[in-house]
Recover the amino acids of this structure.
């Protein structure tokens, strides 16, 4: 997929005027890009539209309008757009209770490395995790991780031919399989 450039973005004024419509379109789009793996783990598969929205929201929230600041946001979010040979996802661990979340994050060290994706009958793929920075410590994992699943040309061809994905997590303290994913 093509990366975002400054010419793709709305000015702050234009975004304010079109935000409700754009947000509604993106939220409808994102519903079909979420895969829940059990009760507490979700993968949000990113693409150019989801990252466009993310950049626009950051520019709005931070009131960024200088070219250097805009470029910093593009540089931060463009790496999350798949390039045709991979799938990229934001992984979120979600627990409503703060105490439960703290305990779970302490028990789920390296869970991001336990995620797998399988295209049809091809071998499963584990992700490259958190390329931008380390998100875990020796005592707990982060509630958010960024994953990149590298696919072989045969896997890409199978997906284009309509083959379905299976996804799962095989962590000693958290297992779940979603098979197949639409």
């Amino acid at each position: 997929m093509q990366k975002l450039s400054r010419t793709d973005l709305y000015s702050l004024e234009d975004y304010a005027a079109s935000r409700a419509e754009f947000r509604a379109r993106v939220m409808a789009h994102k519903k079909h890009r979420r895969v829940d793996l059990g009760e507490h783990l979700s993968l949000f598969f990113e693409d150019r539209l989801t990252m466009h929205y993310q950049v626009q929201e950051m520019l709005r929230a931070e009131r960024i309008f200088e070219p250097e600041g805009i470029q910093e946001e593009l540089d931060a979010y463009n790496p999350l757009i798949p390039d045709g040979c991979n799938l990229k996802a934001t992984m979120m661990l979600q627990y409503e209770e703060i105490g439960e979340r703290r305990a779970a994050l302490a028990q789920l060290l390296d869970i991001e490395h336990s995620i797998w994706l399988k295209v049809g009958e091809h071998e499963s793929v584990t992700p490259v995790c958190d390329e931008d920075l380390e998100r875990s410590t020796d005592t707990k994992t982060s509630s958010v991780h960024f994953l990149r699943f590298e696919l072989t040309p045969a896997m890409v061809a199978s997906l284009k031919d309509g083959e379905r994905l299976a996804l799962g997590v095989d962590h000693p303290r958290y297992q779940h399989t979603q098979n197949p994913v639409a």
User: Anything to note?
Assistant: The longest helix spans residues 12-31. The beta strands are 34-37, 41-45, 86-93, 115-119, 128-129, 144-150, 165-171, 174-181.
